[in-house]
Amino acid sequence: MASVGNVTALPVVDLGEAPGVLRRRLREAAHEVGFFYLKGHQIPAALTAGVLKAARALFALPEADKDAIAMVRSPHFRGYTRLGGELTRGEVDWREQIDIGPQRSPIGGPGKPDYLWLQGPNQWPAALPELPGIIDEWDAALSGVARTLLGHWAASLGSPPDVFESAFAGAPATLIKMIRYPARAATAQGVGPHKDSGVLTLLLAEPGARGLQVRRRGSTQWIDVPGVDGAFVVNIGELLEVATRGYLRATEHRVHLEGAERISIAYFFNPRLDAQVPMLSLPEELGARAESHPDPSDPIYSVYGRNAWKSRLRAHPDVAAAHGYAVGRLDGENSFPGRGNEVR
């Protein structure tokens, strides 16, 4: 694997390479590690600078402005989360963030799967009227990169490049998080060890920003992943692991607070809430190297909405309680108990 500097062993993949070379490198990086740096993506530097500037402006707002769009007000898990307001594996995460998804009408309600409440309107800070436009531009740019990656991955695994397209048709449930981790304070846990519940994640971090660490399956060693100028950090979500029966690997990662504050923008590329990820038929030589290690205490659901609902309830029990969601029903299937008053 290629290295960047002297502090990481993550692979580096260039999206501008010849298709044959690119597909081999993508397949190897996703199989061996599940994380890599992506260059050659053609996202303008001015756009990345603009979205980071917007994030800093957001977190610089007075607390009252941010609390006015607190996630607890939204039955769709959208909006601002204060420092210490989120949990990973029951432990407090020390970060503040805003969760933003596609701006759509609510579709949840009685008799429907709970996970449909994940669709709905966003909450925007009144002091930053330009933020929705910046986010729309960011979403359009990164969705193109993510779709390109999925097509190359599918082809590298012996499937048609468009095999995943039907799962994303109509209303993909992408999610954007603007995140601020303060300089190390009372706890070292910026966000605890976890795997992402969707398909893939594109992470933008300021060059040199530290704290992100990954741990390969079966290893006890955490690998540092500093921000690299001009590169995204890409990682595999649980649904790609399911789709490939474990050949592509969702890798555990965390943010361990150290030194200066950290600003990052996470883009989670996810299919429709009701979409079931297709199961790929791998070539024999690849299938023989697939490894599936299901955890009965933490199942992975092939329907994206069910998998996302599980994660949201665990991370934000205050939101679940505020809107009457049954935390004991983590799979999100037809357990609607509450009223769900949407915030516009």
From TrEMBL:
<dbReference type="Pfam" id="PF03171">
    <property type="entry name" value="2OG-FeII_Oxy"/>
</dbReference>
<dbReference type="InterPro" id="IPR005123">
    <property type="entry name" value="Oxoglu/Fe-dep_dioxygenase_dom"/>
</dbReference>
<dbReference type="InterPro" id="IPR027443">
    <property type="entry name" value="IPNS-like_sf"/>
</dbReference>
<protein>
    <submittedName>
        <fullName>2-oxobutyrate oxidase</fullName>
    </submittedName>
</protein>
<dbReference type="GO" id="GO:0046872">
    <property type="term" value="F:metal ion binding"/>
</dbReference>
<dbReference type="Pfam" id="PF14226">
    <property type="entry name" value="DIOX_N"/>
</dbReference>
<dbReference type="InterPro" id="IPR050231">
    <property type="entry name" value="Iron_ascorbate_oxido_reductase"/>
</dbReference>
<comment type="similarity">
    <text>Belongs to the iron/ascorbate-dependent oxidoreductase family.</text>
</comment>
<keyword id="KW-0408">Iron</keyword>
<dbReference type="InterPro" id="IPR044861">
    <property type="entry name" value="IPNS-like_FE2OG_OXY"/>
</dbReference>
<dbReference type="GO" id="GO:0017000">
    <property type="term" value="P:antibiotic biosynthetic process"/>
</dbReference>
<keyword id="KW-0479">Metal-binding</keyword>
<keyword id="KW-0560">Oxidoreductase</keyword>
<dbReference type="InterPro" id="IPR026992">
    <property type="entry name" value="DIOX_N"/>
</dbReference>
<comment type="pathway">
    <text>Antibiotic biosynthesis.</text>
</comment>
<dbReference type="GO" id="GO:0016491">
    <property type="term" value="F:oxidoreductase activity"/>
</dbReference>
<keyword id="KW-0045">Antibiotic biosynthesis</keyword>
